[in-house]
């Protein structure tokens, strides 16, 4: 197995403030860290079980990949990548190469944060997949290195964080994508009730991923929506609600994030959960 956790979803935004305020107000997401950098400026918001959403703002440099990504989407916010954590980055890279996928943007210089990316043209995922070996979270690393990030740029409420349950995306070839997620990223597959063209994927930790096969994918990313459980509700763990795609499609479009957000109630037996 390669990845053991779907760690976070990264979204390219013009500004942290508008997107972060939505996540905090609607779902109780808490500011975890934020850093102004030259190439890109990332911040992370924490939800229940320390599941994260990362917001990528253009960096201070004129040539920023976030600025280019946004320009390719008419200046609108859009999901950029999903990050998977691995225990052994070298082994994960080798597994990808054995599957015929050459990782890009490989950076193994820093023992506490080693990364590589898998391009969507090679995986069929419709979004970048980042694989990371990071024994500590970002704020622990910054404290260890004596670095202090930016303060939260919006007034935070005190609502309890929701549980970030799943991510839903569109792919053009579900069979190919299934092979990549299972063989390269170590996912466990589960069926989605009543949805023949959709499969679910889960890891030991983090959110689950639902992928639906569609004839054509438009836009810079295959990620369409995310779903939250109410505070205190346990993880889905493969127990998707009936008509889950209808629930996701009925979610609220959030232009600040470039996707829909839906609320879900898990169909699980409370006596056995």
From TrEMBL:
Keyword match Metal-binding: yes
Q: Which UniProt keywords apply?
A: Metal-binding
One GO term under biological process is:
L-methylmalonyl-CoA metabolic process
Q: Which InterPro entries match?
A: Glyas_Bleomycin-R_OHBP_Dase, MMCE/EMCE_epimerase, VOC_core
Among the GO molecular function terms of this UniProt record, one is: methylmalonyl-CoA epimerase activity
Instruction: Domain (VOC): give its ranges.
Output: 5-134
Checking Pfam families in the record gives:
Glyoxalase_4
Q: Which residues form a coiled coil?
A: none
Question: Can the keyword Metal-binding be found in this entry's annotation?
Answer: yes
Gene3D superfamilies, from UniProt?
2,3-Dihydroxybiphenyl 1,2-Dioxygenase, domain 1 (3.10.180.10)
* PANTHER family assigned to the protein according to its UniProt record, in alphabetical order: METHYLMALONYL-COA EPIMERASE, METHYLMALONYL-COA EPIMERASE, MITOCHONDRIAL
Instruction: Quote the protein name from its UniProt record.
Output: VOC domain-containing protein
């Amino acid at each position: 197995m390669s990845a053991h956790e779907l760690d976070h979803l990264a979204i390219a935004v013009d500004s942290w403030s508008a997107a972060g305020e939505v996540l905090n107000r609607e779902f109780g997401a808490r500011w975890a860290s934020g850093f102004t950098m030259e190439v890109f400026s990332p911040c992370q918001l924490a939800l229940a079980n320390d599941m994260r959403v990362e917001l990528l703002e253009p960096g201070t440099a004129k040539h920023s990949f976030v600025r280019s990504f946004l320009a390719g989407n008419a200046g609108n916010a859009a999901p950029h990548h999903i990050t998977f954590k691995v225990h052994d980055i070298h082994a994960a890279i080798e597994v990808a190469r054995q599957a015929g996928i050459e990782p890009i943007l490989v950076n193994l210089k820093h023992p506490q944060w080693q990364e590589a990316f898998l391009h969507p043209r090679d995986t069929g995922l419709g979004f970048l997949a980042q694989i990371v070996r990071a024994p500590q979270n970002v704020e622990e690393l910054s404290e260890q290195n004596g670095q202090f990030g930016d303060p939260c740029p919006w007034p935070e409420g005190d609502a309890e964080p929701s549980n970030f349950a799943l991510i839903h995306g569109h792919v053009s070839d579900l069979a190919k994508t299934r092979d990549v997620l299972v063989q390269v990223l170590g996912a466990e597959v589960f069926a989605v009730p009543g949805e023949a063209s959709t499969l679910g994927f889960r890891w030991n930790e983090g959110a689950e991923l639902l992928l639906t096969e569609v004839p054509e994918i438009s836009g810079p990313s295959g990620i369409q929506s995310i779903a939250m459980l109410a505070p205190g509700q346990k993880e889905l763990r493969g127990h998707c609600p009936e008509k889950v795609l209808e629930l996701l499609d009925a979610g609220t479009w959030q232009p600040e994030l470039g996707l829909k957000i839906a609320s879900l109630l898990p169909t699980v037996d409370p006596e056995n959960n």
